Amino acid sequence: MKSLFVSSGLSLAFSMAALAANAFDESSWDSSQIIRRDVAIIGGGAAGTYATFRLKDHGKSVVLVEKTGRLGGHAVTYEDPITGGSVDYGVQVYDNNSIVRNFFSRLNTPLADFSFASFGRPIYADFKEGVLLNLTSGGLGQDYINELNKYPYLNDGIELPNPVSEDLLLPWVDYINKYHLDYSTAVATLARPAITGDLLNILTLYVFNDLNHLMLQEESGAAVINANHDNSQLYRNAVPELQPDLFLNSTVVAGYRSTRKRDGVRLIIQTPAGFKLIIAKQLILGIPPVLENMRSFGLDSHEHDVLSNIYGLPYYGGVVSNTGLASGFSYKNSAANTTYNVAEIPSVVGFTPSTVDGLFFYWYNSPEPVSQQQIEGEARDAIKLLQKLTNSTTQPEPRFLAFADFAPYQLRASADSIRNGFYDDMYGLQGHRNTWYTGTLFVTGSSQVWNNTEVMLPEILAAINASKSLREAAWILLSHTLKRLGNIVGE
């Protein structure tokens, strides 16, 4: 039995062996394959990486498991081999607060002030019909702020009252009409490139949760960016500091999570060097907790019922050169004949100039998964159309340099699930079976994920310390029992 665990073996053989009763028994493993830590963290994106460092700063031992070969999640960067410049085509900016500044400083990563004006002057075009549109947006008005202020509990999470306001469960276009939001305000809320799905029919709750006061502060100037336009640098700098507590290209294949704090968590992970057993007091999940990602963690029926309500959306990004498009402009896909000129999906959201001359990044919004080939084909057609519409002096063939799939993106639940208490149930899972959920389930953007992690940290630390106290008490009791037995035998 032991040889199945300590060798890299066949996955099939392992998966069968993992069903055995003693799969999580440390005596079935070679000691070199056992990892003991205070906390196991799954997912090396913004949430998992930040939590790892903050727990280490508090003197806790941590192991971080990431399924890809890099840290950073949606912070993806293309490095141009010709100029040496960088293009971020995922995460763009951060809130200018002490948590962000301290984390960047902690990892020796420089920051710079950022202005959204650097994205270029907007040119609106219908990428499908092939026409330029004379659109202007006055931006968000006080009417939006007044509505946002009704729901302060959406600024730093989704802790809803019971019953939840039915207004929050309206499709956004219905809310706009019900409260007579100004046309320019409506357009501004729908023109946000990072909001995914069918923009008109997104639940109002998610509009306010995404475009909250923190985001408004960023857009008004309280925003920072990596000084090298390389948001991946933060995570590259993290890797050396995390050795040997970091396992890249590794996945959880089986898990046992006890309801008792003293028993903690046991995870079997598959790494490039073979299978390992993690024994930890607590577990933090920085991954999207959709069922597809959670099947290896041994869900109980309650967890399964709650997590089955979560769904994520497809979203894609890439970098393209040789466009023939003028720099200094961003090219936005807007429909000529739809409500509020919202482009139908699936479609390219737009092309934004980068700080590397001639390179643009783009995003693609779709209700269903789409292949890279189809996305780049549509992006190519849109660029060729824009070349003609803008009277480009050259009409070269676009070259696609980088591509990323961000799914499952912007995690949501249905209106019925929310009415039935989904978010109360989800918050109720925090700490259940020694497991904690971070990431973008309750907030959007790295800055807010880090803020929320700070809020959760005292509870997580208390759970770690409680587990330690219970173990110490159990050991003392065992020692006393053995001593008494020894005295009885001696008599």
Automatic annotation (TrEMBL):
Q: Which residues form the signal peptide?
A: 1-20
Its keywords, alphabetically, are: Signal
Which GO terms of the molecular function aspect are on file?
oxidoreductase activity
What Pfam families has UniProt attached to this entry?
NAD_binding_8
Q: Which InterPro entries has this protein been placed in?
A: FAD/NAD-bd_sf (IPR036188), Zeta_carotene_desat/Oxidored (IPR050464)
- Origin superkingdom: Eukaryota
UniProt-listed PANTHER family: FMN REDUCTASE LOT6, PUTATIVE (AFU_ORTHOLOGUE AFUA_7G06600)-RELATED, PROTOPORPHYRINOGEN OXIDASE
Q: What is this protein called?
A: FAD dependent oxidoreductase
Annotated source species: Talaromyces stipitatus (strain ATCC 10500 / CBS 375.48 / QM 6759 / NRRL 1006) (Penicillium stipitatum)
Lineage, please? Eukaryota, Fungi, Dikarya, Ascomycota, Pezizomycotina
